[in-house]
Specification:
The protein is mostly helical and 143 residues long. It folds into two domains: 35 residues, no CATH class; 84 residues. The chain has five helices and no strands. Helix 4 packs across helix 5. The chain is elongated and about 90 Å long. The two termini are 62 Å apart.
Length: 143
């Protein structure tokens, strides 16, 4: 089994990086060192070390709840658009299928079958909406 050989450390590069860090920490104006290392070291040294802003712990859950409500609205809108697209598509392409069904079972039976199928679809859609509303009430996003 082959193990990768670690890259040897270039002592000059290491010393240039360390010198740039020391210069950045000391804020020495005339320190030597590679400009790239100096810029990185300045950025590291200049990062704020303070605490998070006031109200941060309360703001994060509030932002997450707001995004969840927005995502739920988008999902509901997408579900509605999908339902309309399915209805439009099924209406456009189902004429031959309905004609074959009518020929096979008769006109009255096909009307009852389409009524039953429509009621089953409507029942399923209502259950989905109620489930989404119940989930929204649990996290406080719907009233």
């Amino acid at each position: 089994m082959n193990h990768p050989v670690p890259d040897p450390i270039d002592e000059r590069e290491w010393q240039a990086q360390e010198q740039a860090m020391r210069a950045a920490r000391a804020r020495a104006a005339g320190a030597t060192g590679d400009g790239g290392y100096r810029a990185v070291a300045e950025a590291i040294v200049s990062t704020p070390l303070g605490a998070p802003p006031a109200g941060f712990a309360a703001a994060v859950p509030a932002e997450l709840a707001r995004r969840a409500r927005r995502d739920r609205r988008i999902a509901t809108l997408g579900f509605g658009l999908l339902a309309m697209a399915v209805l439009a598509t099924s209406g456009a392409f189902s004429v031959p299928a309905w004609q074959a069904l009518r020929a096979a079972v008769g006109g009255d039976a096909s009307a009852w079958l389409s009524t039953i199928a429509g009621m089953a679809a409507l029942s399923w859609a209502c259950r989905q909406v109620l489930a989404m509303r119940a989930a929204g009430r649990e996290d406080g996003s719907f009233g």
